Amino acid sequence: MLRLLGFFDRTAAPELVMALRKAPSIAELTDHIGPQQEARFRKAVARLCQARLVEEAGEPGYLDAHPLVRVYFQEELQRERPKAWQEGNLRLYEYLKKAAPEFPETLETMEPLYAAVVHGCRAGRQQDAMDEVYRRRIQRGNAFYSSGKLGALGSNLTALAGFFARRWDQPSESLAVQWQAFALNDAAFCMRALGRLAEAAQPMQVAMKMRIALEDWAEAAVSASNLSELMLSKGEVEHAVAFGEQSVALADRSGDTFQRISMRTTLADALHQAGRWEESMEAFQQAEAMQAKLKPLYPILYSLRGHRYCDLLLSREEPEDGSALDELAGTSEEARRFRRVCKEVQKRAVQTMKWATQRRFLLDIALDYLSLGRAHLGLALTPGPDTTGERSDADFAKAAEQFDSALRSVRLAGREDDSPRGLLARATLHRLRRDRAAAAADLSQALEIAERGGMRLHVCDAHLEWARLDLQQGNAEAAREHVAAARRLVNETGYKRREREVVWLEGRLKHSGPPPS
Fold it and tell me: Does residue 273 surpass a pLDDT of 70?
């Protein structure tokens, strides 16, 4: 009955509203309405239902108010009766903690815990809500269950809002300092994953500074790594490399071997996007050697780390233009070399997919599907001397299946920031199979997501793929516009990985006639 104030219109039942507002304690707020007021109560409810401010919810006799009505009276109660507000939220917090299983397996059964965090924070119990509910039961400590296995990044961010005095740069002082830094970093991670890149930068940087001040080198390395990934997405490649180097230095200082491995792959990926191919390969190989020593049963890089390495392996052995896979002669040395890499990536992704499936991490599964799709596409385009047409068609079909599965898993993971990657890969497949409509649909969606989120590297990739599609259709004028946009982005962002592709496309366009006057 705490939300009873939200059910009343001042003009419909003013005496009842005033009586409830004047109640001296929270106990009186939850008392039943007296028999003398029953008729007036029913009349007031009928008028409010007619105005669509109140409606019956569930069983007869249960009412719910319009969300705006609830918010209005919540704010009024919080302002005018802070003790009653706090006590009511505390009661809801204690109730909701018990309403959910100890460790819910689904998002639906997790909902009471998310609501508990909100009410616990409103009741001034931020530290308890962080320790006992958000970290222990929702995230399950470092297992990060809710984000990794349920894709509940939006729900996480909603819950995290309660830990802030001001969103998203000032955590509540009720939290210990290390948990203030955690809240900042976790909120920024969720925002980046949801495509809100511009909002994520400041809390991420504040979190890293706090962790460095605490001399928590391992967690500071995580923050620096997150910043490197964010800078890449935003198209600030030099900054991404710098934060990647900082993450390695902090991880080495921590002595945490797992973080030392992980941060080297973050740096390696930034170096790859900067076009520093050999340095990137060296860093990946160093990280994999460290992992084989640390975890002999898992001797190859997996998860995001493994996907990044597969991305480098494939892109390094693609043709110099980085795009004209369909023009490869299947018997050329270049094609044979690329085919060998595709088989290696396929072998790696099959193994890491088994591990990802066992762990049930949605993004890991999505990225393994993506690596497998690219490997099958490469095999379809570079048939060996013993390859029949049926086998080539089977690889095309398998690539399509893997790309579809990758996109489904990315959506389940709630990763808006990774959606363009899958859409662009599938668009390439559609183009190579000469399905312009399907390719254009995927490219339009990828470009829309990337531009909305400020993901400038994905924007560049989309323009390059549009240019290839237009060239295939003989539309040199449209292709020229896309190549010019990609050239600007490569120059502005430092995305030198794509330099050779832009150069190749510019060369192709020179032979397509002069640009229109």
Answer: yes
Q: How far is CA 304 from the centre of its chain?
A: 12
Domain count of the fold of the chain: 3
Q: Residue 296: helix, strand or coil by DSSP?
A: coil
Closest by CA to 312, choosing from 229, 224, 374, is 374
Contact 277, 320 (CB under 8 A): no
Look up residue 118 and give its two tokens: 């909100």
DSSP string, 432-458: HTT-HHHHHHHHHHHHHHHHHHT-HHH
- What is the spatial distance between Cα 30 and Cα 152, in angstroms, rounded to a whole number? 34
Q: Do 470 and 485 belong together in one domain?
A: yes
* pTM given for the model: 0.85
Q: Are both 373 and 404 inside the same structural domain?
A: yes
Measured CA distances, 473 to 241, 368, 466, 468 (Å): 38, 32, 11, 9
State which H helix or E strand residue 198 sits in: helix 197-213
How would you class 130 by CB atoms within 10 Å of its CB: exposed for 0-12, middle for 13-18, buried for 19 or more?
buried
Cβ-based neighbours of 109, under 8 Å, separated by 6 or more: 100, 101
Instruction: Assess contact for 319 and 267: CB atoms under 8 A.
Output: no
- Is residue 123 in a domain? no
> How many angstroms separate the Cα of 201 from the Cα of each of 223, 230, 360?
11, 7, 29
What is the SS3 assignment for 13? coil
Do residues 496 and 457 touch, judged by C-beta distance below 8 A?
no
Are the CB atoms for 312 and 283 separated by under 8 Å? Answer: no
Enclosing domain of residue 488 = 418-510
Q: What is the mean pLDDT of residues 186-200?
A: 95
320 burial type by CB count under 10 A (0-12 exposed, 13-18 middle, 19+ buried): exposed
14-49 per-position pLDDT tens digit: 333 333 343 334 344 445 556 667 778 778 878 888
- Per-residue pLDDT tens digits for 374-415: 999 999 988 766 565 566 789 999 999 999 999 999 999 999
Whether residues 317 and 410 fall in one domain: yes
In this structure, are 397 and 480 located in the same domain?
no
> Which of 396, 414, 432 is the last residue before a domain boundary?
414
The whole-angstrom separation of Cα 122 and Cα 172 is 11
| CA 132/CA 124 separation, integer angstroms | 14
Distance CA 85, CA 93 (A): 12
Q: What tokens appear for 419 in the block?
A: 């959606």
DSSP 3-state of 171: strand
Residue at a domain's end among 58, 79, 100:
79
Residue-wise pLDDT tens digits, 104-139: 999 999 999 999 999 999 999 999 999 999 999 999
Residue 425 belongs to a domain = yes
